[in-house]
Automatic annotation (TrEMBL), chains A, B:
Entry-linked Pfam families: TetR_C_13_2 (PF21993), TetR_N (PF00440)
Superkingdom of the organism of origin: Bacteria
Name of this protein: TetR/AcrR family transcriptional regulator
Keywords: DNA-binding, Transcription, Transcription regulation
Ranges annotated as DNA-binding: 28-47
InterPro entries in the record: Homeodomain-like_sf, HTH_TetR, Tet_transcr_reg_TetR-rel_C_sf, YxaF_TetR_C
Amino acid sequence: MNEKVKPKDVLIETASRLFRVRGYCGVGLNDIIEESGVPKGSLYYYFPEGKEQLAIEAINHTKKLVMEEIQTVFGGISNPIDAFQAHVYELSKMFGEGGNPVGSPIGTIAGEKHSTSEPIRLACESAFKDWQSIYTEKFLEADYTRQQSISLAIVFHALIEGGILLALTMKSGKPLEAIAEQIPLLLIKK
Amino acid sequence: MNEKVKPKDVLIETASRLFRVRGYCGVGLNDIIEESGVPKGSLYYYFPEGKEQLAIEAINHTKKLVMEEIQTVFGGISNPIDAFQAHVYELSKMFGEGGNPVGSPIGTIAGEKHSTSEPIRLACESAFKDWQSIYTEKFLEADYTRQQSISLAIVFHALIEGGILLALTMKSGKPLEAIAEQIPLLLIKK
DNA sequence: GTCTATAAGTTGATAGAC
DNA sequence: GTCTATCAACTTATAGAC
């Protein structure tokens, strides 16, 4: 059993955290090596293709973290309305005034790089699709039609990405609270 | 009558367009002076505080453009459900596959800089508030309560910011189309 | 007011010692 | 495998000619 932290993992976790808060272009490799304590030579040993490759692995890391967060909340609540409401309330606490700074999981990177790096865009697209799949499944389990479930997953994913952006910009959990409160009214069945 | 284009306006328009597509950090002043044809010395004559000052004026410019877009669509449609649906359909065409590249109006800048430049964050917050005010007013005119109108404005603003991000990342107008289609179902009155 | 040349620092990336 | 020294290119910003 090896309890030593692997430099590669430290780099991915540090990059993941910094990219969330300041975006791809806002974080230099110097910031990452300084914060992680891993020297630059090692970074290029583990990521020979440089910053872009590290970013893609950081995006995949964040994708996994977010999937686990969603599944933890969704696992305990069968009703999709209640599940989504609980999920957004969790986010409102996370992005509210107090606490240490967290940024949008990958939204900022996607906004910056969608037109200038196809590999990064594809990594972001993959994360978005995987998250939406969990949402879709939740609606399917509650007997929404497949078409309805897919559309509602898109709607709620957009709502969450937008809500996080509003919370960060307003420096307040209020926008996400307002969204959480409205969810039951939005999802009343006809 | 002076029909000469003012260098200051050219700079703001160019910066506004480039920041939308690639974000704040992703655009250098060299890109802006090259694309605008205005030399660097003139940029610092009109914007003595440099890039940050230019960015704030670019954000205010984009804010105005977006307000006019919303009001144009909203002006012709009194029912808020129909108005929002038309607005999102417009966006789905704008951000769909064809056409020249447009980025999120200010969402990317907000995501990048909310924690590292308070003046830029405030400019973004101001734009978000002004857009939401138009949304709120539309619901008030349709006799929603004030509290409901404010909350729904936040919900729909988040939906639009998130929808634009999904469209850019997926390189497709489909997410925004799906959102537009769901709007009537989301806004059924209880 | 307009523009060029250049400064001072930082960026992503590499070469090569150990 | 690990780390340091260094590179060329680029960044924002400035000084000063015209």
